[in-house]
Amino acid sequence: MSGSARDLALSRHRWEELTYEPPRAEGYLRTYRAMVEEFNPGTARAGTGTLPSPQEAAMASCVRHRVLNALPLWETCVFCTAGV
């Protein structure tokens, strides 16, 4: 997510179009912004186990809804458990 898109989201741009109130979205966006700002590509190294491999990501995906689950925090898809 680019800085301008992230900043728009943080300003609640077009949130009134949502059919729900995202209670944690602002906190998640602020955390994401901090992560991006602190990321140093000069010291980043591939293969450190920070990101899931394609096989691990596939195991954490809901095929029906095509979303990644935040495993191990969720055992199933957030949409499946909500009956969507």
Oligomeric status = single chain
CA gyration radius, whole angstroms: 16 Å
Unreliable stretches, pLDDT < 50, 5 or more residues? Answer: none
Helix-strand category: mainly alpha
How would you sum up the global shape?
flat
Total number of helices? 4
* N-to-C CA distance: 26 Å
Approximately what portion of the residues adopt beta-strand conformation?
A: under 5%
Mean pLDDT: 77
Major sheet attributes: 2 strands, antiparallel
Number of strands: 2
The secondary-structure element order is HHHEEH
Percent helix range: 25-40%
Sheet with most strands: strand arrangement: 1-2
Task: Please describe the topology of this protein.
Blueprint: H1 3-10, H2 25-38, H3 54-59, E1 61-62, E2 67-68, H4 78-81
Antiparallel strand pairs: 1-2
Structure description:
The protein has 84 residues and is mainly α. Helices cover 38% and strands 5% of the residues. The chain contains four helices and two strands; from the N terminus they run αααββα. It has helices at 3-10, 25-38, 54-59, 78-81, and strands at 61-62, 67-68. A hairpin with a 4-residue loop joins strand 1 (61-62) and strand 2 (67-68). It is flat, with a radius of gyration of 16 Å.
